[in-house]
TrEMBL record:
<protein>
    <submittedName>
        <fullName>Uncharacterized protein</fullName>
    </submittedName>
</protein>
<dbReference type="Pfam" id="PF13561">
    <property type="entry name" value="adh_short_C2"/>
</dbReference>
<dbReference type="InterPro" id="IPR036291">
    <property type="entry name" value="NAD(P)-bd_dom_sf"/>
</dbReference>
<dbReference type="InterPro" id="IPR002347">
    <property type="entry name" value="SDR_fam"/>
</dbReference>
Amino acid sequence: MDFEGRVALITGSSSGIGAQIAIKWSSLGAHVVITGRDQNKIDSVIKTCESLSIRRPLGVVADILVESDVKNLVNTTLKEFGRIDILVNNAGYTLSIDFSSNDYIKSFDQMFDINLRSVQVLTRLVVPYLEQSKGNIINMSGRSGERAVPKAMAHSMAKNALNMFTKCMALELAPKGIRVNCVSPSVIRTPLVETSLGDKWIEFEKLCATIYPMRRIGEPVDVADAVTFLASSQSASFITGCIFPVDGGAQWTHRPI
């Protein structure tokens, strides 16, 4: 794979899918930028990466909703490495809420701020450097962006908009040599999902294993492998504007999860 010496900025990489991507790419020789809101979690991922590579990752504490943090994230990356080759917009959030709830509009704004607006803010800052390196962008969507999910209307709309943002950016940036793709996972075993479901997690995992044709839920490494394929100029140099499913065949079922 062609990751040796490349600089990859991965949001939401202090745990879950983002952390797995950072760990994999670090083992492939990339300079990875690990970012999140928790320094201890960042340090933990850095330690794992260091055990697999001679290249020390860069850790930056940042809240993707705070524009000054986002600008500092980009500037710190450039100061350390002088370039950016890959941007992975992985950070996201989901919340179940009824449309009739008094808090729905507040949650709607929150879903779009985290899952869509923040992606655009960071992408606008990074594109000039990706143009220099002929790099690429990977956005992280989900099945809810393609199929309505009960009590997740705002999240579904935000992810659907992210899918369209991916396609529009692919069209706009292709002449500049920048590829833009999106990965769309089904349920993946991450701390965020396990925490949000609480006591219902085990039951939910069994349900997914029954529904999904592959008879299991996804693991972070499944998504990391797909992102690695799309980010590689060797394996995916002619792929852009793609919404890439990593769902164990779930898209072909008639169930919303």
